[in-house]
Amino acid sequence: MCELLVGLPDVRILGVHGKANDVLRIYVESRGERPGCTNCGVLAQLKDRSAVELVDLPCLGRATRLVWHKCRWKCAEASCPVGSWTEEDARIAAPRMVLSDRAARWVTLQVGYYARSINDLALELDCDWHTVNDAVIAYGTALVDDDPKRFGVVRALGLDEVLFARVGSFHRQEFSTQIVDVARGQLLDVVPGRSGAQATAWLERQGKEWRDKVRYATLDLSSPYRKVFTTMVPDAIQVADPFHLVKLANTKLDECRRRVQNETMGHRGRKSDPLYRCRRLLTKAEERLSEGGREKLMGLLRAGDPHGDVATMWQAKEAVRELYAHADPDLALQWVEQLGADLQDADYPIEARSLGRTLIRWKHQIAAWHKAHVSNVCPSYCTSS
Questions:
Q1: Pair 225, 321 in one domain
Q2: CA dist., res. 269 & res. 279, Å (int)
Q3: Predicted local confidence at residue 146, as pLDDT
Q4: 279 and 340 together in one domain
Q5: Is 70 part of a structural domain of the chain?
Q6: 250 and 264 share a domain?
Q7: How crowded is residue 98: how many other Cβ atoms within 10 Å of its Cβ?
Q8: Where does a domain end: 240, 270, 287?
Q9: 185-196: average pLDDT
Q10: Which ranges of 22-100 does DSSP label H, i.e. alpha helix?
Q11: Residue 122 counted as domain residue
């Protein structure tokens, strides 16, 4: 009955031990036939046993450990060059894995299919984070390697940088590049760095036939990523991501606000300063401002923005947002060209002129969204025309 409950093939239950509210330990040993020497074929002799503790799936709501008493065999033939070896059974656990095979398969499924975090699973199994992570990497890599065509045909490919980790005592930022099928919202791979070299190598490995089927290439106003697409998928239409364009406009608006704050007040923003009090209202969409909110914003700008630089940048940010209020590619291109030219007027603040130059430099990629309608942030659809 115990063997049936444990559910492992060809094992003998030696015992079960575990105090209340403590880890439950199940002691097992293999009961298979005595193996023969791999060199001479002579039946092996038992040399000794060693207990290996494996993290197993929870049992009866308690963290469980499977203690496997592994046999160490030796060749009975004195002249045989083979010394001793330890038994292995992949049905119980893979070599050098701290998780049992069934636990490793389970955590891989939880991470890969249900998107659970490594830390969450480590807490549930009452084990170290690295124990779970090592198993997911080992079993997950095997699944990926077994299916080289898992990507299928990708019509819209996206590259986007992500802050992957902070490393060392100084918390140095380490970035990665996500490679995404933005038409289906499927993450294809993650490569280190954001220079474009690793993304270029990844696309090179996919082969020319695969790359030639990519119709749209989305990016976040990154020159290295634009070079990747120009080199590897030259026939694809490059699309600037709307989220990152609006984010850039908000960033320039915030830079202008902080500059004017220092020029007028001589210090960084304080809670009583008008420009500091309106910082959140500035980034809010104009149509989402209530009547009272708009009056408050205008009043604070009149009090803290004597030359109207911040107000100008706020209007420029809203003009960028208005670009996505329609779906006409030709009108979008005219809009970007005109807005980029207007913002470079000598009377406008330096942040507006910088934004205008960016709009002109990326005008074709920005306008292309109105035809492709694909985005790194909110993948929707890829037109069939």
A1: no
A2: 10
A3: 52
A4: yes
A5: yes
A6: yes
A7: 18
A8: 240
A9: 90
A10: none
A11: yes
What's the whole-number average pLDDT of the chain? 89
Same domain, 163 and 121: no
Res 245 pLDDT > 90: yes
Q: Tell me which residue of 53, 69, 70 sits closest to 126, measured CA to CA.
A: 53
Domain that holds residue 30: 1-93
Q: What is the pLDDT of residues 246-260, one digit of tens each?
A: 999 999 999 999 999
Residue 42 lies in a domain: yes
Cα distances from 61 to residues 16, 22, 52, in angstroms, run 15, 11, 23
Residues counted in the chain:
385
Q: What is the pLDDT of residue 147?
A: 58
> Residue 384: pLDDT band by 50, 70, 90 thresholds?
very low
* Contact between residue 103 and residue 56 where contact means Cβ atoms under 8 Å apart: yes
If one counts the domains in the chain, the total is 4
Q: Are residues 202 and 133 in the same domain?
A: no
Report whether pLDDT(385) > 60.
no
Residues 6+ apart with CB under 8 A from 295: none
Q: Summarize pLDDT for 147-187 with one digit per residue, the tens.
A: 556 678 899 999 999 998 888 888 899 999 999 999 988 88
Closest CA to 67 of 25, 97, 98: 25
Same domain, 57 and 107: no
Tell me the H-state helices in 19-157.
101-112, 118-125, 129-145
Beta bridge partners of 11: 30
Rounded to 5 degrees, φ, ψ at 51 are -90, 125
Instruction: State pTM to two decimals.
Output: 0.70
- Identify whether 355 is part of a domain: yes
